[in-house]
Amino acid sequence: MEAYQRLLEHNIKPSMQRIAIMKYLMTHSTHPSADVIYTELSPTMPTLSKTTVYNTLKLFAEQGAALMLTIDDKNVNFDGDTSLHAHFLCKSCGRIYDLPVPEASKSVEMYEVEGHRILEVHNYYKGICKECFEKRNID
Ligand SMILES: [Zn+2]
Ligand SMILES: [Zn+2]
């Protein structure tokens, strides 16, 4: 799906900057923070500001065009993949990985639990990633 199209589908007016930020999100599955996106895009978009990037990402999340992750307490991260999936944060290298969600929480989304309506489910896992774990065993 095109970035432009994705913005329209979520009732977001597609400005040049918004398209560029959405395109970045859709082509980088690294769960970037606003700072990372700003650093990547600012050389080609001199009028871009950090605040604009952050506000744009927040707007995407509010409109359901992206996910806002609060798994890392030092950073807010964003995800262009809005399908239901879990996240794993490596405490050693800080990378965020996508993981499949357990069946139990799949059935919970969009349902009621004890009278409460569930609209979002955040599955956050933290630990040591496979790569870091293997490195440790070699040392
Ligand atoms: Zn790691
Ligand atoms: Zn993700």
What's a quick, concise take on this entry?
The protein is an alpha+beta fold. Helix content is 38%, strand content 17%.
Structural account:
With 139 residues, the protein is of the alpha+beta class. It has 2 domains: 76 residues, Winged helix-like DNA-binding domain superfamily/Winged helix DNA-binding domain (Arc Repressor Mutant, subunit A, Orthogonal Bundle); 56 residues, Dna Ligase, domain 1. The protein has 6 helices and 7 strands. The site of one zinc ion has 6 residues, from loops.
Which small compounds were modeled alongside the protein? zinc ion
- State the secondary-structure class: alpha+beta
How would you describe the shape?
A: flat
Mean pLDDT: 91
Strand arrangement across the biggest beta sheet:
4-3-7
- Count of domains: 2
Q: How many β strands by DSSP?
A: 7
- Write down the Rg: 17 Å
Percent of residues in helices: 25-40%
**Main β sheet profile:** 3 strands, mixed
What is the beta-strand fraction? Answer: 15-25%
Report the CATH architecture of the largest domain. Answer: Orthogonal Bundle
**CATH topology grouping of the largest domain:** Arc Repressor Mutant, subunit A
